[in-house]
Write a structure and sequence with these properties.
One of its GO terms (molecular function) is oxidoreductase activity. Pathway: Nucleotide-sugar biosynthesis; UDP-alpha-D-glucuronate biosynthesis; UDP-alpha-D-glucuronate from UDP-alpha-D-glucose: step 1/1. The chain is of the alpha/beta class. The protein has 19 helices and 14 strands. The strands form 3 sheets. Strands 3-2-1-4-5-6 form a 6-stranded parallel beta sheet, with helices on both faces. Strands 11-10-9-12-13-14 form a 6-stranded parallel beta sheet. Strands 7-8 form a two-stranded parallel ribbon. The protein starts with a strand and ends with a strand. Bound molecules: nicotinamide-adenine-dinucleotide and uridine-5'-diphosphate-glucose. The site of uridine-5'-diphosphate-glucose has 22 residues, from helix 10 and helix 12.
């Protein structure tokens, strides 16, 4: 069954959701306040890099199921199902989430609705937000127009956004427990196709749905910081964290996924989400429950400092005047996202310590330049490595993992590589006469 859907916010989450909903056969309008972004999307061009998404965007625009608009009136008139996918960044100078954008969607949209509708929140929000938004919608929607707010958190990973949206591990829906299940009925229509594949569909109250999302990200962040804490111990003991991760990962209760030690987690989600979670827990009197997340955050940030320290050691104890090649700027491979990127942060710290830093990333160059204009940007791996005293691999793009040591041996000043993601084969580099170092490995 075809639904008429509006998606508010056409960033990494919203543009993916809009294109995937159209791919499922629905009629979709994507709404944003950023006219440059809309212009690109309208012409079938993605304003960011995400594998497989451009094809989906172009196909569904061409087939007439997907369009974009800056008009809330247009969206309110067109759609019966509304998804909120705007940003919820960390507040400046505070841990809490900035809900300005989510609130403004509700303030603008609710008064324009003239027939029954369901608003599904997908943005990651502090527990209690959906309930407040539902009350606000009640005040703002025209008399007699029944508008329900439900929460449908999103679990997609950048780099796998299309597959994660079309074939999610689970679909979680939080609804107002005093209502008669209409949001659930609508969600079942929207997700008819994935649900037919037997994907678990979990319906709960609004608060639990919000918490499922923040708890999932807190767990993932904790898992990464756990292995990075083990990495610190391995460094002190002269042991190998990669071997350790493989060995403990065979225990199915632990699992090998998300146990890659290195320079830690970044991006537009995990860092800000654990901080917002701590802030919200404090507001509701549960701060003690989440004090461990502060340590998770500290361990994570320490990895960046440690990487800078190892780079400094490799250049004789001072980075002043050193030439450092940085391979990778995105917070993870297969993405151009540099929000809170450990790679870029490390590149910046090294530059501040007096080195000349040359960065190359296959997709994140424009975004990096925008937020860090003072670094040198190269157009290839070879150019970045020209005259380098040390090469740092900070994002595990396939092209870096597959790099042959002798491809760059001729251009560097000294054959030193530091593997910030434990993604290279130490044996290969050492036998090509390189000095190889990594975090948490002897
Ligand atoms: N990026 C992900 O992988 C991912 C995955 C799951 C959940 N989330 C959550 O989804 C939300 C969005 O994240 P994102 O990474 O897509 O952010 P983003 O910054 O890429 O996109 C947000 C978009 O919202 C637009 N916007 C701002 N105010 C608006 C308004 N009033 N009306 C319409 N559009 C407006 C912005 O212009 C921007 O295009 C966040 O809460 C995030 O935590 C993100
Ligand atoms: O073993 C690992 C796994 C990941 N990372 C790092 O952790 C960060 C986050 O990686 P990942 O979780 O794959 O990327 P995101 O796209 O940010 O996805 C997370 O954040 C999204 C937004 O909330 C959620 O929807 C996803 O489920 C959740 O995985 C990146 O910097 C990775 O390099 C590690 O250091 N070690």
């Amino acid at each position: 069954m075809t639904c008429r859907i509006a998606v508010f916010g056409t960033g990494y989450l919203g543009a993916t959701h809009a294109a995937c909903m159209a791919e499922l056969g629905h009629e979709v309008v994507g709404v944003d306040v950023d006219s440059a972004k809309l212009a690109k999307l309208e012409s079938g061009e993605l304003p960011f890099y995400e594998p497989e998404l451009a094809e989906l965007l172009q196909k569904n625009i061409k087939d007439g199921r997907l369009r974009f608009s800056s008009s809330y009136a247009d969206a309110a008139d067109f759609a019966d199902v509304h998804f909120i996918g705007v940003g919820t960044p960390q507040k400046r100078g505070e841990f809490g989430a900035d809900l300005t954008y989510v609130n403004s969607v509700i303030e603008e949209l609710a008064p324009l609705l003239s027939r029954p509708a369901v608003i599904f929140g997908k943005s990651t929000v502090p527990v209690g937000t959906a309930m407040k938004l539902a009350q606000r919608v009640k005040q703002l929607a025209p008399a007699g127009v029944d508008v329900e707010v439900a929460w449908n958190p999103e679990f997609l990973r950048e780099g796998f956004a299309v597959a994660d949206t079309l074939h999610p591990d689970r679909i979680v829906l939080g609804t107002d427990k005093f209502r008669a299940g209409r949001a659930e009925e609508v969600a079942r229509k929207v997700y008819e196709q994935p649900l037919a594949e037997g994907i678990p569909f979990l319906v709960t109250d609004l608060s639990t749905a919000e918490l499922v999302k923040t708890a999932a990200n807190a767990f993932l962040a904790t898992k990464i910081s756990f292995i990075n804490a083990m990495s610190e111990v391995c460094e002190a003991a002269g042991a190998d964290v990669s071997f350790l991760a493989d060995a403990i990962g065979y225990d199915a209760r632990i699992g090998r996924r998300f146990l890659n030690a290195g320079i830690g987690f970044g991006g537009g989600c995990l860092p800000k989400d654990i901080r917002a979670f701590m802030a919200r827990a404090g507001e509701i009197g549960a701060d003690e429950a989440l004090t461990f997340l502060r340590e998770v955050d500290n361990i994570n940030m320490r990895r960046r400092t440690r990487m800078v320290e190892i780079a400094r050691q490799s250049t004789g104890g001072s980075l002043i005047g050193a030439r450092v090649a940085v391979l990778g700027a995105a917070f993870k491979p297969d993405s151009d996202d540099v929000r809170d990127s450990p790679a870029l942060n490390i590149a910046g710290q090294i530059q501040l310590q007096g080195a000349s830093v040359s960065v190359f990333d296959p997709k994140a160059m424009d975004n990096s330049r925008r937020i860090f204009p003072t670094l040198n940007y190269a157009t290839s791996v070879e150019e970045a490595c020209e005259g380098a005293d040390v090469v740092l691999v900070l994002t595990e793009w396939r092209e870096f993992r597959d790099l042959e040591p002798n491809e760059i041996a001729g251009v560097v000043r000294r054959k030193q590589v530091i593997d910030g993601r434990n993604c290279l084969d130490p044996q290969k580099w050492r036998s090509a006469d390189w000095s190889y170092r990594a975090l948490g490995r002897p």
